[in-house]
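Sanity check

After download, print the first record. It should look like this:
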Amino acid sequence: MTFKSAVTKFPFVRTAIVATNLISPKKKVIDGVARLIVKTDLAILSRKDNLLIVQATEALLSESWDDLQRRNDADLFKDAFSANAIYGRLSSRAVLFILKKQKEGIETSNFKSLAEIKASFMLEASAACGEAIKTPDAASDSAAPPTAASGMVSLGDMSDPAFLASKEGYKVGGLYVCKTEADKAVYVLESMDETTCSFKSQADAVTGKVFEKKVAYDSLTKTFKPLPTSMVDKQYVKLSKPPAEHLPASSPSFLKDVEKAQLYLELFEYAKWHAASDDSVEYYLNPSNVRSKLNAGKGSIKLVPATDLQRISHKSVTSQIVAHGPNEAQLFLDAPLKPRSTDPKEWKAVTFSPFWWVKSTTISGEANMKLTKMKLGGWSVPVFENHKAVKANDVLLYFEKEEPAAKRAR
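Expected structure tokens:
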């Protein structure tokens, strides 16, 4: 059994586990083997989320052992058996409590907390020594957390789960995130008693709903974690009124997106109502080109630069296709993705727009298409139009002057 701590090996807890198993009830002895505490119980105890309760139990057993030794050295016990019996009951009660197996032990006790177990131990020890018996409340009071004035930490504190939890960063008034909530709601730790911590969520900003949760100490670290320091000051802080340039109606970036959307919509509407022009062509690969499917008279083919919305931009280093709109707006259009194979299964991100398939030629007589302007709504958009009749299977080409070769320096 390996505990998630580099500070202690928990010798008192380990001894108490062995001792508790040795006094297993008959119904828990199978084939001569005590099975009150089994391997799965040990695995549960050694989990990281149970570290707080195991630390509290170790402190309780260690403190109580020292107390019994002090009494024994002072010859307060009538016989050594009394001290051993008291410590044995304490050990078994503590182990069965943290394993949630109290009803399976010999005593079938029902303690609500380690503090109750400690109070019972103090009563038995005092009675065996003939001392004045403190009430459970008085015994519990002796283990109260240290005040800010005293700054003292007692052995009683180290056996108190609430105190140990506070040392791990769980304090009343602190902010925590519930690990089991999908929305990662922020909760306030409102109170800590002997057995549980009570959390209350901040009111939801939209619905105003508030949620409450009670968590046992052995489930605390796996249910809640402290809100990161970087986020503490970011919870529900009221902002000043946003300046006009950050509101949708006047935000420059928002208005630029509106311009792109308006042009995209115009291209989409044209492509939808003039789909016949797109259907009058056929696409070819290797090399890519587009051809007339039928004989077409002059001016009967008009191809607009339809493209994906994300390929319309206010700046481009690759595109020479520019649309001009209202208020001197200027948008660049880039070609959508083309297919790389003839298999339609691989065309998932492909948009077929014949405009982008028209090829250039440096031979003027071969060209049958030319760039012209067309009004689409408030936009002036470049389009390809056949400036002469074409025949079926003719490749659609536009004329582009051949750039003179750059002269080499002598």
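If your output differs, re-run the checksum step. Summary of this record's structure: The CA atoms of residues 248 and 390 lie 49 Å apart.
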